[in-house]
Design brief:
Serine Threonine Protein Phosphatase 5, Tetratricopeptide repeat, 32 helices, Rossmann fold, Arc Repressor Mutant, subunit A, four-stranded mixed β-sheet, alpha/beta, about 725 residues, six-stranded mixed β-sheet, 5 domains
Length: about 725
């Protein structure tokens, strides 16, 4: 029998020893591997083999090359190697070739986990490449990932069995193997730490924990989970005991079988301009699945935190609290786009379902609903359950839909440049299809966000946002983005607090569902007039629904800051910064919290970081001037004077200039700046009744008059 080893380096052996005839013939070796390892086992059609290995050849040349390759395999490995010769389908004779990849999966399926793990000598076809055959490369990548996951699952089973039996040396060995296979998974790390402590190897346990934390921070920009940090802290302080950590871990709550996360689809087309399309289809799929009754879908921001990460699906499932993952990719197939989608069970890493199908970009509008129809039965949903239509699908204009997806892509990035670009793209989508409600809603939200992220005067952005939102809602009353835009514009520009709250509630009831809508409403609607308990509850619920969303985490911090809960505010800001050390909103919250706590030197350091990262931001320069003033630095007045001299009269940043003057003891100058902010309706005045920065003005008649003009409570602190 011929022995084909594919895990690690590729080796081919016959009864007489190594077979070197295929050593320099990569395509023929690849053909042999595919016939041996492709799933499901069985014959392969010739046209399928031609598409994989000779995609650019003419039919005549491809058939000739395939015929020669098959003949070479028979000549080299034996006349009875193949079955089906002379027919349309080719297969390997099962009793003539043994393949380690096939043997591993059979062993794992039969529960022979030690055998499966022994067979995994390395990644499938490691170092082997056939760049002229992109379909084969994609297949290799899929098999490589699947086999690594199968080996890791076997290691996990062996680890847990050893831990339950109290065989700590064996548990440590298997856990180390598990961690090698899934280096981002924290569960094998925790088992290893407990096993090492059981063997009284505390120094090695602490070294292992430090190595893991350093690598996680360096490679992923992340920190270990609260559960892991608590275990490591108990080891460092000597509080760990065998009784507290001896049993195998079980999650506190099992995710619902109907819970799912959609990871960002990979763009394998080679065209970076289609990144927006992959993101957009992912977002549409998340929104469509969210509308199926009984299905719990992880929020967009948390799912997108795993973009471009080769994370273990079990770890992703634990972090997102879901039982299933949808993964997908897109690549070119002639003039069409080939979409490959698979559904994976997170508990064991098993593939439940996979399918590929082709779509032209002209059919992009129908792609999300088509994906849902195919995925839903695999999630044990009814085949007959309709996929409700949403506003973003209410166009049959391909170009309008693609413009909408690109607009969404830029809107989520929230930089001044991206917001301007998103507004342009949404406007073009609405021009192509004037009845496209979601395009108008996206434009309204982009416009309403510009005072916050771009410093655009509210008198410029908000009236237009209200106008466009009304157009969207005239077409479809459920468009959440239009309701949210109305809420922001009514609060920031008209100071219509009741209308803003009504629109916020409508946004929460609208579609698509997005936890960020909830946290935004908590911040702008509930916190602005002192309803902190409700605001914190809503912001915390939004964060819990989208646990890796940087804005949702940061909003918890900002609401806590407004409520004078410095400890909670700082913890939330640092939690967001653990995920992204440069996230501006979290840095901004942290700077204000440190000021409030009297830690002025640290606050100044954060303010300098904000200015260094965004030197054109007048708002951050105002915070720098304030931090300098609180420390009594002589350069504070110069910094503030330079800022004020160059600030346009209509700028919303006069609000923050007022706070900087207060830090320097200039109450009258601060009130002058605040009254200027009122005249140009600065969006930041929403928080005038509760913001700690304005505390030095409270009780002053001029400040009381400002609050009354805003129709805000006067007595709040």
């Amino acid at each position: 029998m011929v022995e084909l080893r594919t895990l690690g380096s590729v080796h081919l052996r016959g009864p007489g020893g190594p077979l070197d005839a295929l050593a320099g013939r990569s395509k023929r070796l690849a053909l042999l591997v595919y016939l041996a390892a492709a799933r499901p086992a069985g014959p392969r059609r010739r046209d399928q083999l031609l598409e994989l290995f000779w995609p650019d050849a003419s039919p005549e040349h491809g058939r000739g090359a395939l015929r020669q390759s098959l003949q070479f395999l028979v000549t080299t490995l034996g006349p009875d190697l193949l079955t089906g010769r002379g027919t349309d389908a080719i297969a390997l004779a099962p009793d003539r070739l043994w393949c380690d990849a096939v043997a591993l999966e059979r062993a794992a399926d039969a529960g022979r986990d030690a055998e499966a793990l022994r067979l995994f000598g390395g990644d499938f076809l490691a170092g082997f490449a056939l760049p002229e055959c992109p379909e084969f490369e994609v297949w290799c990548s899929d098999v490589r990932l699947r086999l690594r996951r199968r080996a890791a699952t076997s290691a996990a089973v062996l680890t847990r069995e050893a831990e339950r039996a109290g065989a700590w040396d064996e548990a440590s060995t298997w856990a180390q193997r598990w961690l090698e296979l899934q280096p981002d998974d924290e569960e094998p790390l925790r088992v290893s730490l407990r096993a090492l402590m059981r063997q009284e190897l505390r120094t090695r346990a602490l070294e292992l924990a430090s190595e893991f934390e350093t690598r996680l921070r360096r490679e992923l920009g992340a920190t270990p989970s609260t559960q892991t940090r608590a275990l490591v802290d108990s080891l460092r302080t000597g509080r760990w005991s065998a009784g507290s950590g001896g049993a195998a871990e079980r999650p506190a709550t099992e995710p619902s079988p109907g819970s799912v996360a959609v990871l960002p689809f990979l763009n394998l087309t080679g065209d970076p301009d289609l990144d927006y399309f992959c993101d957009g289809i992912t977002e549409e799929l998340i929104a469509d699945l969210s509308m199926l009754a009984g299905l719990s879908v992880a929020a967009r921001t948390s799912s997108f935190a795993f973009r471009n990460r080769a994370a273990d699906v079990r770890d992703v499932g634990r972090r997102l609290g879901v039982a299933n993952l949808v993964e997908g990719n897109m690549r070119r197939a002639g003039a069409a786009v080939r979409v490959t989608v698979q559904l994976v069970e997170t508990a064991r890493g098993f593939h439940l379902w996979a399918e590929s199908f082709d779509h032209s970009l002209a059919e992009a509008v129908r792609m999300p609903a088509e994906l849902v129809r195919r995925i839903a039965p695999a999630l044990q949903r009814s085949l007959l359950e309709p996929v409700p239509r949403r506003p973003s699908q209410d166009t049959q204009d391909r170009e309008a839909f693609l413009l909408f997806l690109r607009g969404q892509h830029h809107l989520y990035r929230r930089t001044p440049e991206d917001l301007a670009r998103s507004a342009e793209l949404f406007a073009r989508a609405g021009e192509r299809d004037p009845r496209y409600a979601a395009a108008h809603g996206g434009l309204a939200l982009a416009l309403a966000s510009m005072p916050v992220y771009c410093g655009t005067p509210t008198g410029v952005a908000c009236p237009r946002a209200l106008e466009v939102a009304d157009i969207a809602l005239g077409l479809d009353r459920t468009v959440a983005s239009a309701h949210l835009a109305r809420s922001l514009a009514l609060a920031m520009h008209r100071w219509d607090w009741r209308g803003a709250e009504e629109s916020a509630l409508a946004a929460l009831a609208g579609t698509p569902k997005d936890p960020v809508v909830r946290s935004t409403c908590a911040f702008y609607v509930h916190a602005h007039d002192g309803r902190f308990e409700q605001a914190l509850a809503e912001a915390t619920a939004s964060r819990d629904a989208d646990p890796l969303s940087l804005p949702a985490i940061s909003y918890v911090g900002y609401v806590a800051y407004l409520a004078r809960d410095w400890k909670r505010a700082e913890a939330a800001a640092r939690e967001a910064l653990d995920l992204d050390p440069g996230f501006p909103l979290a840095l901004w919250v942290l700077e204000m919290v440190l000021e409030a706590k009297g830690e002025f030197e640290d606050a100044l350091g954060v303010a300098r970081t904000l200015v260094a990262r965004s030197p054109a931001s007048a708002m951050f320069r105002a915070h720098l001037a304030r931090a300098l003033g609180l420390l009594g630095r002589v350069e504070a007045e110069g910094e503030l004077g330079t800022l004020a001299a160059g600030l346009p009269p209509e700028s919303p940043v006069w609000y923050w200039v007022a706070g900087a003057h207060a830090a320097l003891g200039g109450i009258d100058q601060g009130l002058d700046a605040l009254e200027r902010a009122v005249e140009n309706r600065s969006n930041f005045l929403v928080f005038a009744a509760v913001h700690p920065t304005l505390d030095p003005f409270r009780g002053h008649p001029r400040f009381t008059a400002i609050l009354r003009r805003l129709d805000l409570p006067v007595t709040l602190r």
